[in-house]
UniProtKB/TrEMBL annotation, chain A:
This is Anti-sigma factor. Residues 100-138 form a coiled coil. It comes from the Bacteria. The chain crosses the membrane at residues 53-72. Keywords: Coiled coil, Membrane, Transmembrane, Transmembrane helix.
UniProtKB/TrEMBL annotation, chain B:
Signal peptide: none annotated. NCBIfam families: sigma70-ECF (TIGR02937). Belongs to the sigma-70 factor family. ECF subfamily. Keywords: DNA-binding, Sigma factor, Transcription, Transcription regulation. It comes from the Bacteria. This is RNA polymerase ECF-type sigma factor. Gene3D superfamilies: 1.10.1740.10, Winged helix-like DNA-binding domain superfamily/Winged helix DNA-binding domain. It comes from Geofilum rubicundum JCM 15548. The keyword Lipid biosynthesis does not apply. GO terms for molecular function: DNA binding; sigma factor activity. Pfam families: Sigma70_r2 (PF04542), Sigma70_r4_2 (PF08281). Residues 83-134 form the RNA polymerase sigma factor 70 region 4 type domain.
Amino acid sequence: MGKHNSFDDFIKRNREAFDSQMPSDQLWDRIASEVNVSQSGKRQLWFNHARRYAAVALVFLSVAAGLHMVFFSSVEGEDLQASLVSKEINDVTYFYETEIERKRERVMALTAEIPAIEQEIEMDFEALDLALKELKADLNDDVANSEVLTAMIQNYRLKLQILEQILEFVEPTSTDNNTEDENDTFSL
Amino acid sequence: MMNNSAEAEDMLQEVFIEAFTRLDSFRFESTIGAWLKRITINKCINELRKRKVELDYGSINPNVMVEEEQEEDDVEVALSVDRIKHAMGLLPDGYRVVFSLYMLEGYDHEEISRILNISESTSKTQLLRGKKKIIEILKAGEIQTPGKN
């Protein structure tokens, strides 16, 4: 056994030395550029998925909100709850709509010569706006509850994500800008 | 496994691009590293097959396997990583793939049989033959280690 095992043992003992070859730096550049191209194609798919998920989520949450209203709403304390929810909704709406407006203006400024991007945003936002309108109608009908608010936040965040993904590609690469965007993304 | 640095880089490039584009399909059933390793191995094997490389996995007589194993035990040869790597480069692709998967990547014969769609006994025999061939090459001094010979 000795000699044969020593061959196996030698390889086991020196396993890491067999991985001495490293890929060239150019390889990572090629991968990065290829992945960027793939992602821009994938983004369109993501938009489609996002729209579909948003629609499904909206239907589910609208039904849930309706059921909640029918079976669990209570007259007692309704005014106080409505007041608290109303403030929360106002805060959320103000925060997200300001952010969305700010980023949308940034996108428009950077893509003024590419009207197709604005058209694409219009299309993506159309479905989301419709969903948001229905959610707000639920709120106006005093159906305000955490599920509806969560659905509204998801709706706003989808819009922000769409704008952020576009900005990722069209914004001039600067460390400050990138850092700001990353912070924006994670603070939402 | 590819036995060529440029081709290995091409494979690596394809693996990472595929991994990024298929990240959604990662189900956390294994580590990311194991997932990448599996994609890499599948890609390399597919590429070898695409090039119509004959991965010589003939049917094996178990008795022959035992004889080969016993024969391996009597080998005596000076070992170094560089010399073994060069000897691996001289192996037929079928031997080299099984040898790499078992000796370097840590797969067992059951896993190799599934990856390569061969029987476990074929995997064992390919490994033994690969080892035997490497040792023969080392003994015969048929390799040229860069910077050393």
